[in-house]
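RNA polymerase sigma-70 factor (ECF subfamily) structure dump, as promised
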Amino acid sequence: MQKKTVPPRWDRTMQQRLARGEAAALGELYDRFASLVHGLAHRVLGDEHAADTVTRDVFAHVWQHPDAYDPRQGPLRSWLAALTNRLAVERLRTTGTAALARGGPGTTEDLERTVRHATVAARADYIVQSMPAPLRAALELAYFQRRDYRQTAADLGVTDEEARRRLRLGLQLLATAHDAGTPGAPPRIGGAA
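structure tokens r here:
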């Protein structure tokens, strides 16, 4: 007999509260996920004002369509990230297409390339934010502070082998940002989301 996956209690409860129209639930959801939503939107759009607009649109959508999220399909965090990416990509395409129609520089192929790059970058950001803290810390030391695995191990207080393992796993997760899957959807990473 196959065990049915039970969604996390907080996600399920939040969806039920939103479905009942509890304004406080929307406030809690916003407090918890606004920085994620805004960061992903900004990563796709590269514009603060546009990211603010998409953030507002995401939470308005959640408020107007609380049943659109099904807790059995995965974490609320992943659903919000996918919704954010979809709305941000739609906005990027719309503004890019309008610019091309006005005679702006580039081609439709250039716009699609920009959308693909922005989507991959947003997925990579989402993956880094969602990965377990030990993996994220190792990657941040190696990438931003240019530490090798030995220096990373010393900074984290772990063995060289453990530092290599963390870096390898982190990079493997990060490599999934290029996976085609569902366009614009955050990757399905067991337990990391």
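Residues 76-101 form the longest helix (26 residues).
lmk if u need the other ones
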